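Incident log, structure service

09:12 report received: a user says their structure output differs between two submissions of the same chain.
09:20 pulled the input from the user's history:
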Amino acid sequence: MVDAERRLLANALKDPDNQHFVLLSDSCIPLHDFDYVYNYLMRTNISFVDCFEDPGPHGSGRYSEHMLPEVEKINFRKGAQVLLDM
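09:34 re-ran on a clean worker, output below:
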């Protein structure tokens, strides 16, 4: 899944018209129509994604050596997405 997202972003970055990216899972259900969400996201300068070092079981404790050589343990971070109240 990560490899597919990485390839998707790599190809999307080839087009200079692409300036913002929104990655949604199959369980994401928009509460507003497309135009509302699009306009909200395009007009903000806030990042809704964060990553940080978490040494616990839900952070780097989930690291697997199968991620090598692309992701070394020292570069592994926990990600978070912010819930939007639009």
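09:41 both user submissions now match this output. Likely a transient worker issue. Closing.
09:42 reviewer note: The helical segments are 2-12, 34-42. The mean pLDDT is 78.
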